[in-house]
Amino acid sequence: MIGRVLLLGAYAGREAAALMVDGQLEDLLIAPADDPGFAPGAILRGVVDRQMKGQGGVFVRLPDGQKGFLRETGGLAPGQTVLVQVSGRAEAGKALPVTRRLLFKSRYAIVTPDAPGLNVSRRIKDEALREELEALAAVAMEGCAFGLILRSACAGAEPEEIAADLTAMRDLASAVTADLSGGPELLLDAAGPHEEAWRDWADPAPDAVEEGEGVFADHGVEEAIDALLHPVVPLVGGGSLVIEPTRAFVAVDVNTGPDTSPAASLKANIAAARDLPRQLRLRGLGGQVIVDFAPMPKRDRATLEQQLRVAFKGEASETALAGWTPLGNFELQRKRDRIALAVTGV
Question: In the CATH scheme, what is the code of domain 231-343?
C-alpha cells in the first residue's frame, strides 16, 4: 500500500506495532517475551548509592534490586532519595543508564519539570497557529512552573483535544514529581508498543491505521521480521550488507557481489549507507558500530560520508558519526534505546 500505514497488532502473542511506508517496513516495536527490567522512559524513585570515582557518576538503587548509573551528581549524597528516568538500555550485567532530567511525553506535548519555558515545534511554520498554540498552552499550564514543548502533531488536532492532553500531562507530572517519600519504587512505567507508536509515529498523520492480530500477516510484516533475524541484507545492484552484533560492537560488512569494479563498490556502499539507519533501527541495535565498506578510492570517502549524514539526519535515536579509522573502516555510535530484536524472544 502506498503511503504511511500504522499497524497495531500482535506478534508471537505479544503486543506489537509496525510502521509501513510505501509498502516497506520502516519501524517496529515488539514487547519482549520476558521482562527485561525497566524500559527507557520509565520514571522511578531511587536511592543514591556510592560514587564511582573516575567514572563521573553514582550508582542508584532501583526497585527489584536493580541498579542505575547516574552521571548528574551535583548536590547528591549517599542515601538521598532521587527521581530518575531510564534513558537507555543496558548491556547484560551492567547498570541501567538513568537521568534526573525527567520528560513526560504524550502525542501532543512534552512536559519538562526541570526546564521551564514554552517551546513550539519548529516544524509548525504557520505563525498564526503558533500564537494560538502558545495561548492555549498558557491557559493549560497556568500556575505551573514546568516547561512545555508542543509537538508538531498539534498542527492537525482540535484545540479541545490538545488542551485535554496538556492538562492530563501537567497533572501526571505534578503527581509523579511530588512523590519523594519512601524507598525505590516504579512511579511511571514506560509506554507499551501501541502507546509509543501512537505517540511517536502519528506525525505526519498516517494514511491508514489498522488494528488486530492479523494485520502483520496482511502487510508482510511477519516476513520482514524473519528477514531481520538473518545477518545478510540484499542491496540494490547485487551487493549485500552483513550485520553481525557482538558483545563489544556491531560489525557491518558491505559486499559488492560479482562486480568488483570501483563504480560497483561505490554504488554498493551508497546503497548500504542509505539503508543502514533503517536496519539498525528495526533490529534494535546500538552502541559502537563499525562499518567495513567495500574497497574504494579515498577520494570517494567524502561522497559516502555525505550519504551517511543525510541518512542518519532524521533518526530519533542519538547517533554520532565518528568518521574513518586508520584501517579504512567507518565508526559511529548509536544510542541503545531498544532491546535487540534477536533477544526479544521472536
Answer: 3.40.630
Average pLDDT over residues 174-198: 95
Question: pLDDT tens for residues 45-60?
Answer: 999 997 777 677 999 9
Q: Alpha carbon of 176 to those of 36, 104, 163, 250, 335: distances in Å?
A: 23, 10, 20, 37, 26
318: nearest Cα among 263, 346, 291, 281: 281
Say if CB 101 and CB 134 are below 8 A apart. Answer: no
Quote the strand ranges of 62-108, DSSP E: 67-70, 81-86, 96-99, 104-105
Q: Is 184 helix (H, G, I), strand (E, B) or coil?
A: coil
CA distance 98 to 339: 16
User: Do 282 and 27 form a contact (C-beta atoms < 8 A)?
Assistant: yes
Q: Compute the distance between CA of residue 238 and CA of residue 256 in angstroms, rounded to an integer.
A: 7
Residues ≥6 apart with Cβ < 8 Å to 20: 1, 4, 5, 7, 26, 219, 221
Angstrom distance (rounded) from CA 156 to CA 201: 14
**pTM score:** 0.89
CB-based contact 107:153 (threshold 8 Å): yes
Q: What is the mean pLDDT of residues 169-179?
A: 97
* Domain 43-101 part of CATH 2.30.30.30: no
pLDDT of residue 260: 85
Write down the domain spans for the chain.
Answer: 4-31+194-218, 43-101, 104-180, 231-343
Domains 43-101 and 231-343 share a fold: no
